[in-house]
Design goal:
CATH topology: Arc Repressor Mutant, subunit A
Strand order of the largest sheet: 1-2
Number of domains: 1
Organism: Paenibacillus cremeus
Keywords: DNA-binding
GO molecular function: DNA binding; DNA-binding transcription factor activity
Strand content: 5-15%
Protein name: Winged helix-turn-helix transcriptional regulator
CATH superfamily: Winged helix-like DNA-binding domain superfamily/Winged helix DNA-binding domain
Low-confidence stretches: none
CATH class: Mainly Alpha
């Protein structure tokens, strides 16, 4: 299996997703592409503040934008999320394997008195 993730990508993705507003924006975009105005509706913050969060998301590669006329539509870029998900999956497989080995060891070395 080819690993698509790099330390830089993972640092960017997890750093960006550490902010609850950005996670909420990603959740909104999971429903489909949206304009800044639509994305700002559930938040009690200014449009410039939402735009700053979107710039951070765009810079990290988590979100992309397309222009149509005077509107900018934001959407999720799954490649960055897929890389982070692959890293987490690999980590989960490692720990599952380690715990299975520990369980076998304990079963083999337990005494039934």
């Amino acid at each position: 299996m080819v690993k698509c993730y790099s330390e830089e990508i993972l640092n960017d993705v997890f750093s960006v997703l550490s902010d609850p507003t950005r996670r909420a924006i990603i959740s909104q975009l999971a429903k489909g592409e949206m304009t800044v105005m639509k994305l700002a509706e559930p938040f009690e913050m200014s449009l410039p503040a939402i735009s700053k969060h979107l710039k951070v998301l765009e810079k990290s590669g988590l979100v992309s934008v397309r222009k149509e006329g005077r509107f900018r539509y934001y959407y999720i870029n799954p490649a960055s999320i897929d890389c982070a998900n692959q890293w987490l999956t690999d980590l989960r497989q490692f720990w599952t394997s380690q715990l299975s080995r520990l369980e076998r060891f304990l079963d083999q070395n337990s005494t039934d008195d």
